[in-house]
Structure formats: structure tokens, C-alpha cells
Amino acid sequence: MSWLPKKSVVVPIDFSGESKRAVETALELVSLPEQVHAIHVMFPLDIVSPGAAWGAVDEVERENAARSHTQEYIKENNFTGVTVLNRVGDPGTEIADYALSINADLIVIPSHGYHGIKRALLGSVAERVIRHAHCPVLVLRREDAE
Question: pTM, whole model, 2 decimals?
Fold first, then answer.
């Protein structure tokens, strides 16, 4: 199995600087930008979410805003040609399922480095991706990690 180049690399994005670095890393591992699949996954609104409970947030509007923001993020960072998509669901499983559906060679994901109570409350998307992925997962260490 050859390490380079990859035919398809999935990169979860959350619009952070760490996500930008992950896309840049993925672009170094492929021959064409189209082989990088940048995916943004939103948690679905549940009935107890304040916006949903009061009817102030519409799921379709929310998804359209996320799609628009994703396209803007790609344009601002000059990631021309990168395959872009948005999903709604559990980020860890959606990312792993998408990677399986395109038979990805690799998932490149940044680590936000949460630990302690913050990690317990927020969970770890990278950890869930590692557990559910069918392909190798490259977890990038935060640049400001100790």
C-alpha cells in the first residue's frame, strides 16, 4: 500500500484555523484538489433547542446558512476545486459513513485538544471518527498544544 498520493481524502471542517490546516494537509496528499472532500456536519435541532422550541429557527434556513458559510470558507481560504458538502447528524458517524460511501483512502481531522470536563461535556468528534472509520485516520495535533 502506497502512502502517496491518495485518491480521496475526507476532511471535516468547523471553520476554525485547525480545519484550515487540515485541508491544507489533505491537499498535500492528493494529486488533484477534487480528491479532497471537505465536509461540515451540523447536529440536528432537537425539540428542546431554544430556537426550535420557540419556532424561531427553521431547519431548512439553518442548513442553507451552513451551506453558504461553507462555500464562503472555501472561497476565503482559496481551496478552489475541493469537493464540499454539508450534512446534518452526529458528526463522528456522518464523517465515517461518508468516507465509507466514497471509499476514502484517509480521513484528516484536527484535534481541538479538549480534556477534562470540557471533553466530557463536548465529546470528541475525532475519537468517534477513529472508532467508526473504515480507513486510516490522521489526527493533527493543535499547533498551540503543550
Answer: 0.84
